[in-house]
Amino acid sequence: MNDFLSALVNLSQSVLVFTIVVLAAERLGQFGSRWRLPLITGYLAAGFLAGPDILGVLARPMVDRLGFVNQIALSIIALAAGNELVLKEFRAQYRSICWVTICLVAVTFSLGGLAMYLLSGWLPVMKDLTVSTRIAISLLTGVILVARSPSSAIAIVAELRAKGPLTNTILGVTVVMDAVVIALFSVNSEIAHSITSADFHFGFLFIGLLLLKFVLSIGFGFGLGKLLSIYMSWHIPHHLKCLVLLVTGFAVFQLTGWFQGYSNDAWGVKIHAEPLLICMIAGLLVTNFSPHRAEFSKLLEEIGMPVYLTFFTLTGASIDLSILQQTYLVAGGLCMIRLCTVFAGSYMGSTIAGDPPKHRRIMGLGFVTQAGIGIGLAREIAGHYGDWGSDLATILIAVIVINQIIGPPMFKWAVGLAGEIGQKTVDRPD
User: Fold this and answer.
1) What's this model's pTM, rounded to 2 decimal places?
2) Which of 325, 363, 357, 327 is nearest to 345 (CA)?
3) Measured at the alpha carbon of residue 308, what is the angle toward residues 305 and 313, in degrees to the nearest 5?
4) 334, 145 contact by CB (below 8 A)
5) What CA–CA distance (Å, rounded) separates 296 from 291?
6) Average pLDDT, the chain
7) Residue ranges of the domains in the chain?
């Protein structure tokens, strides 16, 4: 009983201190926006300054106790990714979206992963790891480098009132990429877990468990989508629906964790359904196959900013300064490699799709920005892969922050070169 009360007091203290830090982060984000910096840059900076390695306002045990904040935020980020996949809006550029997405994923994932494997051989924090662990790091790095930022792209398009074939293709690819990245992460995370375990054996059992993971995730996603549709039809105050959505997202992570432990105890096999994939599928179903799209989008929009604020602030506090000092050159190198793969992949895909030559040359400028889902997956890596997971997350978050700073101006440049700024004269109804 005393242990429970002590844990409750510590958690309450952590939440109170973190709330104060979050309020400061919000102000810092607004301050940075005056210089055209993304809001999340300010949130990350505030968390980093308040974290264990700078001011120490948030000690390392406090950050660890606030892990439930990450789970709630990740569920909302995945639901929002599904909500952005409005299938009927991408029909006009279907061919371009498909080919550019395929080529971007193939080139960025393969070359980015290969580069990370080579770089990890001389990194002080990773050079002593086994070959299998370095392969796992490379696979997960390749996935994160593929990630884009739909929220940033949509915000830029709205600001510029941009409309046209290039803008629509970039938006379509960016939104679809979120779904691809979550599915890709599910596969590679399972492979990484397996090859870094002592009893790994590649065979029919491994393939069967991987397929079972997908089947369960899809099935649970359909079930969650039905449940969310029921929530949307309830005649209750709006703020209560927001609370129910947050609790449901947290429950998805708790239930998948419980199921993994239960399957291991009862059957001797860990069966892990991917909570991000479950939430993304549920969001897609509610948006495309229910009459509650407007209500669902409104809820996600209202809770999105507070959720992102707390999530990115906590992420900043989790960054390890000592690791960052050892790996900043690698982060810069990965940014350069990612830029090259983005331009190569987008040019290749748009060429196959038959896009105009001008669009082929400038399309890559629209795919540099990274944000929500990339950082979310980096935090997932930190939570699941012990010491090297935290080190890798620090490197990847540094890469994402750099891309989030340089990406929006590049996107604006591309839209300007295509002559599509100010072409949207009538707002599209929600």
Assistant:
1) 0.77
2) 363
3) 125
4) yes
5) 10
6) 83
7) 66-417
Residue 225 to residue 296: CA distance in whole angstroms: 11
CB within 8 Å of 429: residues ≥ 6 apart: none
Residue 355 is encoded by which pair of tokens? 């896009």
Cα–Cα distance for residue pair 80/405, rounded to 1 Å? 22
- Token representation of residue 216: 């369960």
For 66-417, CATH number? Answer: 1.20.1530
Question: Phi and psi at residue 182, in whole multiples of 5°?
Answer: -65, -45
pLDDT digit string (tens) for 339-386? Answer: 999 999 999 999 998 888 888 888 988 888 886 678 778 878 887 777
